[in-house]
Design brief:
Layout: H1 4-11, E1 38-42, E2 47-50, E3 59-63, E4 68-75, E5 78-82, E6 88-92, E7 96-98, E8 103-106, E9 133-140, E10 143-147, E11 154-157, E12 161-166, H2 171-221, H3 227-242, H4 248-280, E13 295-309, E14 317-323, E15 326-332, E16 351-363, E17 366-376
Parallel strand pairs: 15-17
Antiparallel strand pairs: 1-4, 1-12, 2-3, 4-5, 5-11, 6-10, 7-8, 8-9, 9-10, 13-14, 13-16, 14-15, 16-17
Helix pairs in contact: 2-3, 2-4, 3-4
């Protein structure tokens, strides 16, 4: 049974590159149609498209009223047609090679495209050729659900097709069908990019949370050894370097935490120097390093409050006050709910006035403000 994700992928059918070996960064091309072919329009709604020209041949999918088909064969009352809009089929994964994360290239010769996954599924009469590039819509075990090239025939009963004349007189109808295929390809690419961006963003935020918590634990333990802090800096820098599609907000949070890690190294070096100087002077050395941020008894700030998720961090993240698009301070408020004042992910910004004190601590790379009062600015 196909998962909802696989079914959603099938809705985002992608345009193939027909007629020659191709690469994913090339624009789709379509082999020219024979002028002896004619064009038809489906007159019924939910008309079965089948793998063969008989009532008992398995249906591939249903065509909507108005769908355009190119008639390439007549078999009694049945028409062998190409469908510019496209339809899905299945191919054995072992007979393909990856082009990118969403496309494969056929490596065999005269490879069967089947109605569905499995050798028991009937094949289409036209076969796939070496070099055909196919968008992958879903994976089912050792089979790939792919977009069929336009050159692959399927069959529909002639009673449900109104013929409109030769190919040359129906170029616009064919182009409209191909545009629907191209639109689905564009949507598929957009969704794929969006999914990749979400995965990258989530992975980087997980590292921000883990590194931020490790830094907080190191500060709580005290000491002047810079090696563990330097290792955390290297870890976060590597995560930033490998994240190809993080959001701007996530990158800014990573930058803030990286700056805080460097600041902590400087504090520890200064702490070690102070201990050594005091000992040389015969004085009592300090027991702890200075606070990582300035203590301010009263602050009055304005900005946009946003919840910044950081998996692994205590509480799963923190509320952050933004000055424009720059994160300025992290907020704690035991006496109220900052969530009610926060701006949602895609909502227009709501300006909030925050009063409290800056504690001298840092959270996820930002100075911490303990909030005593917070209100929306009219």
């Amino acid at each position: 049974m196909r998962t909802p994700l696989a079914l959603a992928a099938l809705l985002a059918l992608a345009a193939p590159v027909a007629g020659r070996p191709a690469f994913a960064d090339e624009p789709p091309s379509v082999a020219p149609l024979d002028e002896s072919f004619s064009v038809g329009v489906v007159t019924g709604d939910g008309v079965n498209l089948r793998v063969g020209p008989r009532q008992d041949d398995v249906a591939v999918q249903q065509l909507a009223q108005g769908a355009v088909v190119v008639i390439v064969e007549r078999a009694g009352e049945w028409l062998g047609v190409r469908v510019p809009e496209g339809f899905s089929g299945a191919v054995a994964a072992e007979l393909t090679e990856p082009v990118d994360s969403e496309h494969v290239r056929v490596t065999g010769t005269d490879v069967n495209l089947r109605r569905g996954a499995g050798l028991e599924q009937p094949p289409f009469r036209d076969r796939l050729q070496r070099g055909d590039v196919l968008p992958v819509l879903a994976r089912e075990g050792t089979w790939l659900i792919v977009e069929a090239p336009e050159s692959v025939r399927a069959y529909v009963h002639s009673r449900y097709v109104e013929e409109k004349g030769p190919v040359s007189a129906n170029a616009e109808r064919i182009a409209e069908g191909r545009k629907r295929r191209e639109a689905r390809e564009a949507l598929r690419k957009e969704l794929s990019t969006s999914s990749a961006a979400e995965a990258d963003d989530g992975a980087l935020r997980a590292e921000i949370g883990a590194v931020g918590k490790a830094l907080a634990d190191a500060r709580a333990a005290g000491g002047y050894d810079v090696a563990p802090v330097g290792a955390l800096e290297d870890r976060l820098e590597a995560a930033v370097a490998t994240a190809k599609h993080p959001s701007e907000r996530t990158k800014k949070l990573a930058d803030a935490l990286l700056a805080d890690l460097r600041r902590e190294c400087e504090i520890r070096v200064a702490f070690a120097d102070e201990i050594l100087a005091k000992k040389r002077a015969g004085q009592t050395p300090p027991e702890r390093a200075k606070d990582p941020a300035e203590q301010v008894p009263a602050v009055d700030l304005k900005g946009t409050v946003r919840w910044e998720a950081a998996p692994g961090w205590d509480g799963g993240g923190a509320f952050v006050l933004y000055d424009g698009d720059k994160p300025s301070v992290a907020l704690r408020w035991s006496g109220g709910d900052l969530g009610k004042l926060a701006t949602g992910k895609d909502a227009p910004p709501t300006v909030v006035r925050v009063r409290g004190k800056q504690t001298g601590a840092r959270m996820l790379g930002l100075p911490v403000v303990e909030v005593s009062q917070a209100d929306r600015v009219p």
